[in-house]
Structure formats: structure tokens, C-alpha cells
Amino acid sequence: MFLWSVLVFVNLVSGTTGTNAGVKVRVTQKGLDYGRQFEMASIQQKLRAIQLKDMSGTERLLIGKVEYSITGMQIVNLGLPKSALGFVPDVGVMLSVANADIALRGNWKVKYFRFIKDSGSFDLTVSELSISSTIAVSGDGTGRPTVSMTSCAASVGSVKVKFHGGASWLYNLFDSFINKALRSALQKQICSLLPNSVADMNPFLKTLNVLSKVDQYAELEYSMVEPPVISNTMIELGLKGEFYKVGQHEEPPFSPRPFSLPSQDTNMLYMGVSAFSINSAGFVYHRAGALRLYITDDMIPSDSPYRLNTKTFEAFIPQIVKTHPGLMMKLLVETVKEPLITCEANNMTVQASSMVTAYAIQSSGTLSPLFVLNLEGSVSANIYVSGLKLAGHVTLNKIQTSLAKSYVGSFQVTSLDSIFTTVLKVTVIPKVNAHLQEGYPLPAIGKIQLQKSQVQVLKDYLLIGTDVQFTG
Ligand SMILES: *[C@@H]1O[C@H](CO)[C@@H](O)[C@H](O)[C@H]1NC(C)=O
User: Which residues form the Lipid-binding serum glycoprotein N-terminal domain (predicted)?
Assistant: First the structure.
């Protein structure tokens, strides 16, 4: 009972504090595997630059006291044949490198019996080198992810040396003293260089487009709203995913509902775009007055059965013949509240409540209002990925009209439905589609291309599965 109350309490607390994510981005093991090659290239570069300090010392051997020095050590080859990146739940990722080898070249010098000097070069091969390092993933305080190395261990398997010049007892000197010193110098060097290579990823992560301008009306925010969620199969970032009026971040009267992505792993990346995110766009555009359009006859294709003039309406509103004979018309279509987007499995529908004001254009150019209609329209949306954007295309399902006000007496408004359906299909819908085709930026990092992207409509969100390719 006590546990139960605690759980309920925890739930309440977490429900009231954090903002739910509007967009989620999940990286799978496949995505991690793709990223690994870039991290390995960076590590390769860093390790090749390892500088081993010259070493010198004095040792007492059978032949007496020997002074030695090892100088000019350089890495001539580095092999990293086997590496893996895996998830560490709640922490980040683990990098492991196995069976690596390093070939070094350097010079040796010895002095013994006070006056005998000898020198030459040597080749050294370090093999079965393994490295294991934990990289923590967290938020950087500006809404972007950041990585840092939290642990590193390197171990050298075997060291083989080939002396050029010199006597065989030099091997003993090497085996007993120099070998050990080199091992520990290498292990230290590797673990002191790795954090840099990990930190090199941060400028790249900083390129997350936390705020992207969409157009003159809207910008899209993608900052992280919660710490990354990391399991042993994926890492998931919860992003705000909200449209705002440019420069003015006012919250809409609705908020994101929690949602979770299905466990799919055939793509490198999955993104969930909630109905909330799309609805926030509707809110911004409606508020900005962007969802209104004047329709004139020249926008209607010449092969349309209807012209936008009072003659077209005569059959349905006979009074027009008397009051406004032979005039061209103009319509103003505008939303009266933000459109409502609903996502059900394989079905994304947008419901728009709008108002249509019909005017007759007098020969002087003056507009005389004829009537005002309430128009409820529903469209089906098809969403697709285009470049780094989410784009769409809508088709008109059905409209429902009712008369709000008439300046030309009463008439049967439903008889006009087919005219308005046709007019909307050839004017408003193509304009909406032209905008939707421009697309809306998806969250992205660095220069990437999305490949094999597919969009699925699920309950309350869109699921995008995609592979990525870095292009620069
Ligand atoms: C799609 O969803 C809308 C709104 O939820 C619903 O009215 C419509 O019937 C659905 N269409 C199909 C084909 O299921």
C-alpha cells in the first residue's frame, strides 16, 4: 500500500513538472554502428599523433652498469581492426577496441664499462592492444545533447622489439626495464587522448537545429526537454517539437501528450512527430492570419463548370438576378479557429472550421457582401520526407456549410455545396499543397542526408523511420 502511494505520488510529480516531448528522436544500434566509423577515424587520427617521451636510465646488468637512452620514438602504423559501440543503460555508450596494434620506430643508445658506446635503431610492435571507454550522453543546458568520456582503460597485450645493431644482451635490458616503462606510457597516453576525441563530437552535436525558421510566420523549436533516455538497445531524445510565431513564444491552449515509439530497429533513426507538434503549427498560422485566402475568378481554371459570378448562383439564389445582375464575385475564405489535426492508424485528418464571405464586385470595384457561410471542411493528409523536411499533400474529403448571414434573402445553402467543393478543390487546396510541399525542417545534426525514409501515421503521432548519411 505504501509502495502504491509512492508510485502514484511519483507519477503525479513527474506529470506536473516536465514538459512532454512533442518530437522524439531515437538512435538504434544500427545508427550507432554507422556513427562508429566516424568516431574510429577520429580515434585513429588522435592515436597516430601519440608522442612518447624519450627514456633514459641506468641499470645494473651482469656486465656491469649500463646507461641507456631511447629517443625519437614515432608511431609508424596503427591498426584498429575491431571496434564496437554499444549502449550503456542510463549512461550513454561504451566504446571497445580489441586486437589493435601499434608499430613504433625509435633509436637506442647504450654506454657501459665507462667508455664503450653502442647505438642503433629498433622496431617495436605492440599487439593485442584493447581499449574500453564509457561515454556519457546528457544535455548541455542549451537544449542540445553533449558527450563526455567518463572512464577509459587501455591494456597492451604483447610487446615485441627488433633491434638493429647491438648485442643480444640488449634484449634483456629491454625486456626487464624498457618494455614495462613503454607499456605504462602507452596506456596512459591512449587514455589521455581519448577524451579529446570524444569531445570532438560536441561541436557536431551543437549543430542540432534547436530553433529553425520555417517562413515569415513560424519557427520550430527542437531543444531537448528531458534528459536522454538510454536502454541497452537505443538512445532517445525528447525534443520540444513546437511551432511558434517568429520571435514570440506563446503557448497554445493545448499541450503535448506523452507518447512512446514502437520498438523497431531496422532503421538507424526513428522520429516521432506528435499530433501536438502539427497542431501547434495550425495554432501559429491561424493566429498569424495566414489561413485566409481571397478567391477570384481568375484563380478558377477555364475548363471549370463554374465561373465566379452572380450568374452561377442564380439557380440557387434567384434574388441575385434582381439585386446583383451580371457581376463578377469574390470570396474570402478564412479559418475561424485553429485547424484540428488528428492522427489515427494510417489516417491523418485535418478538420478546419472556416467562414466564407461572398461579395459581388460592383462595376466601380466596390465589394457588396452577398452572404456569409460557416464551412466545416475536412481533408486527408499524406505526409512524406523530402530532403531534411517533412512535407505533405492534402485532399478534400467533404465540406459542410450553413448560412451565417445573408444580404440577399434566404436560400437553401446546401444546394451550394457542390459549387464550393469544386471551388475549394481548384483554389484553396492547391495553395495549401504548395505550402505543404515546401516542407518543415526536421531535427538534424551536421550535414546529413536521410535515406530510405518512410512515414507511418500511428495513433497521435507520425513515425518516421530513416537511415542517415553524413555528407560533410
Ligand atoms: C480518419 O479519421 C477521421 C477523424 O478521426 C475519421 O472521421 C475518418 O472516418 C477516418 N477515415 C478512415 C478512412 O478511417
Answer: 26-248
